[in-house]
Amino acid sequence: MPEFREVSVTDAPALTLLTQYFSDRASSFPSAQGSYRTTLPVAQDFLPPRGVFLLVEEGHSGRYVGCGGVRRIADSPAGAVRYEIKHLWLQPHVRGLGWGRVLLGELESRASAFGAGEVVLDTNASLEAAGALYRKAGYEDIAPYNDNPNATNWYRKALVSQERAEA
Known about the structure:
Elements: E1 2-7, H1 12-28, E2 51-58, E3 64-73, E4 82-90, H2 99-113, E5 118-123, H3 128-136, E6 140-141, E7 153-158, H4 162-166
Parallel strand pairs: 4-5
Antiparallel strand pairs: 1-2, 2-3, 3-4, 5-7, 6-7
């Protein structure tokens, strides 16, 4: 099973994985949609309690094979505290092992601990496995909540924050 390490998006291992992620997206981005536009994460957006950035480690090997983050964004139209999942990515050799589902669950848990009432994310329809993962995890389609030029699909999932669950 994967282990998670909380880091700054500016740490060397995080930058290495983000570079791999952006390269992977750029090389597989549908040409009919133009060119993939890389947007580096802003470090302070991924510092608790505004957010967190995680590296995925293969067991206790010290070998990082993926990443993902969650950050606070504007509240939902209904007033729910909203966090956004960003840069969820795994190296190809660990895909299909269920680690994407585990990472997504960990990010949801972190958002819930920060008080999120819901999480949102965007993706591209060309990432069929990602879309299937989100739908299986209980995400529903929503109208665009941002202007990400790389996105074609937007999703949300209601959460029960840990603060509310403990009350």
